[in-house]
Amino acid sequence: MHRQNIPPGTGEVKTPGVDFAFILDLTSRQAEALVKAWLPAWRREGDEWVALNPTRADDTPGSFKVNLRSCEWADFATGDKGGDLISLRAYLDGSSQIEAARNIAAELGIDAAAEPVGLTLEAYAKAKRLPLDLLRGLGLETVSGPWGKPRQILSIPYRRRDRSLHRCRLRVGMAKAADGTPRMVWDKRPEKTGVILYGLDQLPARGCPVLLVEGESDCHTLWHRGYDAIGCPGAGTYNPARDDTELEGYEIIALIEPDQGGATLIKQLARSRHRGSIKIGRLDGFKDASALHLHAPERFDGVLKAAIANALPLDSLTELTPGQEETAAGPAEIKLAPGEQARITDEALAVIQAHGSLYKRGGALVRLCGDRLIEIDEHWLADYLSRHVKFHRMKEREGQFVPVPADAPAWLCKRINAKSGERGLPELVGIINAPTLRADGSLLNVPGFDVETGLWLRQGAWPAIPEHPSRNCLEAAWRVLWLPFSEFPYVSNDDRAVAATAILTAIVRRTLPLAPAFSFDAPAASSGKTLLATCVAELCGGEPNIVAECAEEEIRKRILSVLMDGQPCVLLDNIKGMFKSPALEAFLTTQRYSDRVLGASKMAPSVRFDEATAPRPHLIRNSAPVKQNATTP
Length: 633
Prior knowledge:
Blueprint: H1 20-29, H2 31-38, E1 43-45, E2 48-51, E3 64-67, E4 73-75, E5 80-82, H3 85-93, H4 97-108, H5 121-128, H6 132-137, E6 141-144, E7 152-159, E8 165-176, E9 182-186, E10 209-214, H7 216-224, E11 229-232, H8 240-243, E12 251-255, H9 260-269, E13 279-281, H10 289-295, H11 300-309, E14 312-313, E15 332-336, H12 341-355, E16 358-361, E17 364-369, E18 372-375, H13 378-388, E19 389-397, E20 400-406, H14 410-418, E21 430-432, E22 436-437, E23 443-444, E24 448-450, E25 455-457, H15 471-482, H16 493-508, E26 517-521, H17 529-538, E27 545-547, H18 552-565, E28 569-572, H19 582-588, E29 592-597, E30 600-605, E31 609-614, E32 623-627
Parallel strand pairs: 10-11, 10-12, 12-13, 15-19, 21-25, 26-31, 26-32, 27-28, 28-31
Antiparallel strand pairs: 1-2, 2-3, 3-4, 4-5, 6-7, 7-8, 8-9, 13-14, 16-17, 17-18, 19-20, 22-23, 24-25, 29-30
Helix pairs in contact: 3-4, 13-14, 18-19
């Protein structure tokens, strides 16, 4: 059966009794749920839902598709097509678009009238069972909508920590969730001011526990119930680079919803520099705090406190979240098909990005292995993809096309490795074993990957570090730090000062753009030069890479090697006579160092700490000398 062609953009928008603009907005926001309900058979491929066409004898999937992002649909076998989900519903039902719009409105539990009241403050308070005074005190108000006809909508102010206004987010209506809970629908217009966390102006003093939730209404509910909370305006909107600073110093417990949005929020939090201290809680039997408040108000405190008490560390859950490692629903699935290498590559990269365990470094794809960074080759990547993705090809069997398991294609691994800076992965600068300071003076003390610096802080037990230490505290800390270095036989106080500079530089070298090398001189052997240099190097986060041969070619090779491996320090030991090295001088004066190895150009960030020891004074440009007496320490 062939239906009439319904081109994109048609829509009887001015038909009395139906507000097409409002319903189109709702359907675009719930496209996937609606299309799955209308066309339950078959699968999703990227942004498209591929199904059998129920209006004709269709037993071969592939020709009938709905784009879940644009809402356009088409049957390429018949030429039927449309530009929105109202026209799709009309096509499937064999009805007019007016009837289809009304059916959709009924399905969503909304009024299809041409001039509905979108959402007033009073209606929102009633639907969510929240006090009007609370909401008014937070700045919520009813305003006129941006459309030509009068519609009242809800304005929710987003304020910064200093209470200055960032923007107002507009809620234009209510829809029903699957459990009957009223859910808000928001204005689709671009938010030119950008997104920030909701409730920054309501945060308590740092050090207090704070619940992290999705959306504003859960925040309103928790504040009403007496709990400190902050909200992400959408599960995928948490941005570590922007939001981590706001959460600094708080004990964060994220209340995760049991859906794809919850999995997305976990994925975003897994990239936070606070991931080592974030906990994940779930409300047993309830989607979110608002649903708990509406359906079981008498159990609210008990269920919420149980969720807090049973919250698990984020690091223990990231391997079980959809889109990252294997999930309760299994690994991600990718369909292999001729002519679709770009799609397959993008989907594979999306899995790698979501998993969060691979990084880029100097254009190479790398992974963490203990205290080293290992460059990934095509064979390792093929094994990785096979463990985290179910690849399949469609094969015809007994007249039906069915998915058949397949291995990760060799071409896919080569293409991902070749993409260099186009993989959408964060750059991993290096690994540190102890807290350090960022370039802006803030403290990096949360284990895991730090977005701002590109450093990975390993787990460890460190004493508490005050955010604003007193002078007495700093002096006491320096006495403890200097004690093991104090008995080396320095020639003068100037040499002690340079040694102290080397110690402090080693601690923060990873976050400095440039720093000098340090040389340790003495007129005789066994004066403690190498011991002193090695002790300072330990503060970089590991044992130094010692270079005994100081030929220029060997220095070039070793510099590039330690950079690519992410090792923290290189030590040029037992230098004799006048020493010159163009490679080392170039390395010390640039933030990125490149060289050629076996005909391939390699580039890496030059954020390493260099030391040299020598039996007598020598010359290295951009170095600071520490002179010692011949006395053995």
